[in-house]
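User: structure tokens for this one?
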Amino acid sequence: MKKLIRYAFVVVVMLLLSAGMTSALNSRYSNQNTTIQNSQGSYEIQWMMEYGNNPGSGARYQGPQPIGDSDNDGKNELLISGRDCTIRVMKWNENTQTYTQVRAIHPPLYPFIHCDAGGMAIGDVTNDGKNEIAATWFTSVYRYFALKYWMIGINPYIFNNNGGSADCLIGDCDNNGKNELILSGGPGWQEDSPVAEITVFRWNGLFLKRVAEWKDPDVNGYVYMAGLGDVDDDGENEIVCAYENKVMV
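Assistant:
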């Protein structure tokens, strides 16, 4: 009972601190008109952001930069992140014909804790028909309401067990008609860590619960990015991941 009370207290503190940490930040943006030609037509570089060459705050793109309707207004947003403890929520501005940062999300307990979002995703984690933003830092989930992104769920199992999480994705990995949050990563440099290469979390109505995992019995692998989809065309989804000298389905 005492452990449950302590855990609840930590979650409440993180929620309160994260509530005020989603303001917009100034960064170096520029519009581009560079055209790339190919046999099928041409692509133009529409916009770019420069993080600079500082090793402490420069860019690090371990996973994809998600595109989706993160605030459920019917229009898509773009999520980008680097080494500056920030997920930037970008939105296309029709008036200025460029992308504008509308919100910024920081990790729990920021600025006391500094960590990067190795991966992030947009999708319906809670299975209520509305999208949320998921981030690998502390395996956290954010929902937009009252003009902010509020942290509604967190499960620090991976961080608490000296593991790493490089990316995350949202989808129905067990084919029950509901989405799960899939974290890829592993024990990292801590060989005695129990963290698996794939860890699956599910929203149970109150919090994120760890429900499944894949841990290679032969090696301590580390998965930077995983995929989810119907690989064998049998109507059911599979998880695909690669590490060491293996590709696993």
